[in-house]
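Encode chain A's predicted structure.
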Amino acid sequence: MKLLEHQGKQFLAQAGLPVPRGRVVTTPDGARQAAAALATRVALKAQIPAGKRGKSGGIRFADTPEQAQAAAADLLGHELAGTVVDTLLVEECADIRTELYAAVLNDPASKGPLVLFSAEGGMDIEEVGARDPEAIRRRAVDIRSGLTEAAARGLVGGLPQDVQDTVTAALLAMYRLYRDIDAELVEINPLVVTSAGEVVALDSKITIDPGAVSRHEELLSEVLAHEDEGGTVLERRGRALGLQFLELDGEIGVLANGAGLTMTTLDAINHYGGRPANFLEIGGDAYTKATPALQLVLDNPRVRSLVVNFCGAFARTDVMTGGVLSAIEELCPDVPIFFSIHGTGEDKAIRLVREQLGVEPYDTMDDAVRAAIDAAGADDTPARGKVAG
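Encoded structure for chain A:
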């Protein structure tokens, strides 16, 4: 469950992290009133579950209440990153001295929490890491002992002495929040130091483990009420169909059975240098929804190739494959599709692909993934209806 910025900031404030003064509004006049009440230069931020809002025009600045009203009128009702903007956060601008980056997240490598910190905040952290991996400091945390003050202080070494204490306290507060609400991610970018030496969270990105929501129903009541409205257009369509679908920012579509296999497929795509376009599980009886599921993937204009990865134990791969083949026949996708099929019913499933599409599934998931990555990066992407094996 992804929290919107203003929702995440409520949790940050409760955890003891300072956040800017602000108001949530849904109308241009509400933005004017908020700016007037704050009586300072304000930022108007579209409240959508997507990053890089500044680059997409989702953050505006205003020096007067009238400018805030005009900016809100321009933002509200318009679509950004596949989501119609219906809510804005109007908050005071900070007097920034230094921008930092901080995050606590689940780490598959260490099988526990990982704390990240960088003195280069306010930028895409991926770009920072690609340019200078040492600019991002990492600390794996033993979940049994938690993040110690000494470990947190070790991450912020090199900062001016007058802010090391407050930044250390901020990291410890972020870790406590991550633990207390069963978060998968608590990220602040930028975490700023003001000219007065105060540490303030200018942004908030928090994701909570969906399986833990029932343990925090009272705490999350406001978030739960908004959840049905959140997500991109495709994600809302997926929910309406009863499908587990998340839209990502890559070019390689994924259809797989079971959440674990789907995540493994995404990991493999990332490992071999590709970027997945979605999470979509069609295991169990979801094969009966293969056509709308495939349509969801294809309606993402970024998708340039597709991996179909089935591995069956109790689930029969031939039944799932039959559903996908029917969907392919109906929709005639114009991107290449690469199959990997193993498990119960695999002989029949492979035969169906051979007979109906005239192609051979790959022996391993890795081979199918690499082929899909190559196809996604090729200028001569196969013509409409072309399927690869």
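The domain at 96-222 is CATH 3.30.470.20 (D-amino Acid Aminotransferase; Chain A, domain 1).
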